[in-house]
Specification:
This is BTB/POZ and MATH domain-containing protein 3-like. Pathway: Protein modification; protein ubiquitination. It comes from Panicum miliaceum (Proso millet). The chain is an alpha+beta fold and about 220 residues long. It has 4 helices and 13 strands. It folds into 2 domains: about 140 residues, Apoptosis, Tumor Necrosis Factor Receptor Associated Protein 2, Chain A (Sandwich), CATH 2.60.210.10; about 45 residues, no CATH class. Helices cover about 15% and strands about 45% of the residues. The strands form 4 sheets. Strands 3, 4, 5, 6 and 9 form a 5-stranded antiparallel beta sheet that branches. Strands 2-10-7-8 form a 4-stranded antiparallel beta sheet, with no helix packed on it. The radius of gyration is 34 Å and the shape is elongated.
Amino acid sequence: MAASQRPGKKMVSRCNPDTERGTLVFDIAGYSLLKGGLGDSDFIRSASFTVGGHDWCIRYYPKGVLAEDSEGYISIYLELMSKTTRTGVMARFDLRLLNQATGVSTVLTDQVTPRLFKSVNETWGTQTFKKIRKLEASPYLQNDRIVIECDITVVLGTPVSAPETVCEIQVPPSGLLDDLRKLLEAEKRTDIRFKVEGEVFRAHKFVLATRAHGG
């Protein structure tokens, strides 16, 4: 049985999401004052910033969110500050701390999968952002100051292009099997002989092998 031919016409439709990216830097002075003055689950907000037509801010919890798992940690969240459509808004983001000795920020929370913010004041982030005792012994805290960065990519839409033809080639049907059959029947330049009921036949080894495998 001959192998089926691939169609010569190929059409492609592409999806290329529209996005907008931005970075907010939240420079927090008076670290020790905030830690001593705020209670568990108390937070301060950064100023809002606009990316992808929506307003966002960073929430900083100096003593962490009131939860057993977050005890001894600071907690950081990204918050949607503006109203959205019924379907919400998708955003991918990472949260970082600036190493004040090197000037390089380190990603501590990386949301590779976009998160859906369904309504105003909805948050995504981590309650165990950084252990407090490790933060206070690190170059992330200097002169009673920490710097938090949030890099956010907002998905604006997922347009799909109309199909376009990328190639159109007329592929002729293969005549290989007919050629091999004719070669077998012609008995020219044969390299094998076999006898069937007293009659001697000449053939080609590779043709017989092809017919044996191909049926």
